[in-house]
Write a structure and sequence with these properties.
single chain, 1 helix
């Protein structure tokens, strides 16, 4: 198909071509990255443009929101296009370290200094893992001088990173023992965490830094798969350098599950206040993971197999509380309540829940989720390859 040399990046795989029956000069081509459009198809050099305003179909692999008052709104780590920092939800994001075709696996920021961001992913052209950082809220970026052990070669998206202060982070590459840096990636030191179970599929720790006490870092091992080992949580009180197994997480009986089907979130307004979704149920800890309480609200739908038909709780996020609410954050969970799948919200720390979406808005499923710290009731979530969506 001819096109003007000035056209941007005309590439991808064609899925469909439509010609406007009332105007044959108007042609639309659907491809993996959206829609190309021309209105002068009969020209020897027709001009093509991206007709994708309001349409996004990237595969979101990670979402994270900064503290209230940060100069950006959200960090979106996506397949094929890498990580992006949003400053305006109404316009195409422009802040990104992307100089190569890459997947972004996840990102985090220093809660007390959100201008410092760290992100991880893989360059698709070479299959090389990477870690990058920004010290100015995403305006400029640089690669870490070195990657955490395993970060360069173990490039599955089952990976995470937690930032507890400027220049300080803990990185868990897929199928690797997590490592920490205190010098912005100039060097990495392995933690004492055990390797994750070998279950035939990639697995790793979900990491989360306590937002009130940066010395506390939490590492959730989900067991790798439904046939793996029971989930467990490890807790660090020295900035992610060394970890101790939470005996309470062992006695809680966390279900084994895939990395992408579980979630660990911290309440940014209270030290040691943790929420965990193990794929089947939701657990809450208010003592930095020493003890865990299972909520009876969420439950998977089963049909006699060893795995559920619909998983009961796969993602949890905490955002700005409703004015006057008794609990310091609004809690959002993707899961099943009374046999009905959806997004559920609690204003009272999990004592009661109401459905946040409805049957007309199920989005083909939801992967990862994050909640806004500035706007009550705003959540961001992935539509399983259908881009990033958000509520008002």
């Amino acid at each position: 198909m001819p096109h003007s040399p000035a056209d941007e990046g005309f590439s991808g795989w064609p899925d469909d071509i439509e010609i406007d029956p009332s105007n044959p000069d108007h042609v639309l081509q659907v491809y993996g990255g959206g829609i190309w459009e021309t209105r002068n198809a009969s020209s020897s050099t027709p001009g093509w443009s991206h007709a994708i305003g309001g349409l996004e179909e990237i595969a979101v692999l990670g979402l994270v929101t900064p503290p209230a008052g940060a100069p950006y709104i959200l960090i979106n780590s996506s397949g094929d296009v890498g990580p992006w920092v949003y400053t305006d939800l109404a316009t195409k994001s422009t802040l990104s370290p992307r100089t190569e075709w890459s997947n972004g696996f996840g990102a985090d920021m220093a809660w007390s200094d959100p201008l410092y961001i760290a992100s991880i992913g893989v360059v698709l052209g070479t299959g090389t893992g990477f870690g990058v950082w920004s010290g100015d809220g995403g305006k400029t970026w640089a690669k870490f001088a070195t990657n955490a052990p395993g970060g360069t070669t173990n490039t599955s998206g089952d990976a995470s990173i937690a930032v507890n202060a400027r220049n300080k982070a803990v990185w868990a590459p897929s199928n690797s023992v997590p490592s920490y840096t205190t010098d912005n990636g100039a060097s990495w030191v392995s933690t004492n965490l055990p390797g994750t179970p070998s279950v035939g599929v990639p697995s790793d720790y979900h990491l989360a830094a306590d937002r009130k006490n940066p010395n506390k870092v939490y590492a959730y091992d989900s067991g790798g798969a439904w046939w793996g080992t029971p989930g467990k949580v490890h807790v660090s009180t020295d900035g992610g350098h060394s970890f101790t197994l939470s005996a309470g997480s062992v006695s809680a009986g966390l279900a084994p599950n895939y990395f992408m089907h579980i979630s660990l979130a911290v309440n940014p307004n209270a030290e040691g206040d943790l929420w965990l979704a193990d794929g089947n149920a939701v657990y809450h800890s208010t003592d930095s993971g020493v003890t865990w309480t299972r909520l009876s609200t969420f439950a998977s739908i089963w049909s006699g197999n060893a795995w559920p038909v619909v998983q009961g709780a796969t993602a949890v996020a905490l955002g700005k509380a409703k004015p006057g609410a008794a609990y310091s954050a609004a809690v959002y969970v993707v899961g099943v309540v009374n046999g009905v799948w959806g997004v559920y919200r609690s204003e009272d720390g999990g004592a009661s829940w109401s459905r946040f979406n409805d049957d007309a808005h199920q989005f083909g499923g939801i992967g990862t989720i994050a909640a806004d710290q500035n706007v009550y009731g705003r959540v961001y979530f992935s539509g399983i390859g259908r881009g990033m969506l958000y509520s008002n």
